[in-house]
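Two folds, back to back.
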Amino acid sequence: MLWLLMAVLSAFFAGLTTILAKCGIKKTDSDIATALRTIVVLIFSWIMVFIVGSANTITQIDKKSLAFLVLSGASTGASWICYFKALSIGDVNKVVPIDKSSTVLSVLLAIILFGETNNLPIKLISTAFLAVGIFLMIDKKNESNKEIRRAWLPYAVGSAVFAALTTIFAKIGISDVESNLGTAIRTGVVLVIAWLIVFAKGKQKKLKNIDKKELVFISLSGVTTGASWLCYYYAIQNGIVSVVVPIDKMSILVTIIFSYVVFHEKLSKKALVGLLLMVCGTLAMTVWG
């Protein structure tokens, strides 16, 4: 059950990533930050590839696996762009729950596409708990500026949709590929997309004005992202997608704890109930799914 431990570690590192990234985009443009942290993730990923000795298997990857790895990387890039744009203009405790709604779509797609129908009633009930919990966590009563709410919400929704597609594409593409190598290939695609967006928007001039302290946080978020990805794609390659995904999304617990400590963002009673429902749904999926 090593894949289960990897799913838990993936959640932990993903939770830290959000906080570190939020610290790194207070002044820095979110597109620039995404492109820079992807460089760190790519370096981290290829170091792991050479450590495990899977670099020599790259020529053995078939065209179908490569195509889906590229699609996974492209959807990851789109998800990142949306997510960090939403984080730059919205509260962590509001953006993250919407992003985590990708869990519901990922689980349903895993059931349909991969036939993960064992204990189906439990999975569907657990997914319903997750959906209701996510809805309750999207707390709007403290949002005084409606324009800000409208601004970050589409980006958060886009992040969730692309994140769900990322998981499905990755599961197909990584089935016959060593997980660390698959992660490195995907990251290369993300890097290309991130920098294309930077240059397409003419933001490359902002690179010389990046705050050094924020650059440190961006780099650290890249390291934790790399660690999270390596754990996550090992878990979905060797485990059950409809179980791994909800566990990974429990990174929200880590995020909320640190957002309270670092940013002093508190949960309302409604949002707290939503969080408890998400935890219950995830535990049920893990134990009986």
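---
second:
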Amino acid sequence: MHNPLGKTASYSTVFDPSVLFPIARAQSRAQLGIKEPLPFAGTDRWTCYELSWLNAEGVPQVGIATIEYPATSPVLVESKSLKLFLGSMNFTRYASAVAAADAVRAELNLLLKTDQVTVAVHEPESWAGQAVVSPPGESVDREPVSADDPGRLRRGEEVVEEVLHSNLLRSLCPVTSQPDWGTVVIAYRGSRLDRASLVSYLRAHRSHQGFHEECCELLFTDLMAAIAPTSLWVGCFYTRRGGLDINPERWLPGTPRVSLGGRLARQ
């Protein structure tokens, strides 16, 4: 099993789970000082826009798949390997979209060492119901920021409950150094987060190298340290690359999970 990221790869014409590549979560979490038991609950949700298979008669079918698995899985799946895996289904016959989803679920449960992977395949008849939505809460993107701000999150004295978002999320793939773009949404109750400091923080991390899931956990841990919240939910909604978008969410246990109700405009 070899990591295909950054390497030339070809698509198999037969169903090939062997291309799936796991990445252990433990190393990046150790670097962030995250220990067991995890200080958060969480999930990683993927939207796969380039799914195709054959029906029982050999006629090509297409769908949009959503894949979700818990942050408690010991590994995550590397994105290019998932793309190659889904591509290997292109010439495989399945009796239905549900059967295709079941095949994906079974292999990801094995790879991720969990039994909690969920997979849904949305066929073209349902696409009209997939809404494009705006991120919830107030944008911080127009906050005035000093050029020499060091990028550390700051808090005020007042305790508030609010939802904020920013479209300025950018990080770098740790293997290829290609930029990844996204929107971050933060829902919390705690000492008021200085909004300009959040903009400066995101600016300071524009060249941070990390997988999407790691970047979400970094922001979560930094927010915990900065504002000492009693409730906190962080969602990082990345734009698609290679027909996939990745949407990690982390939250303090007991914090309600925020639902966007659709995909963002850049996804």
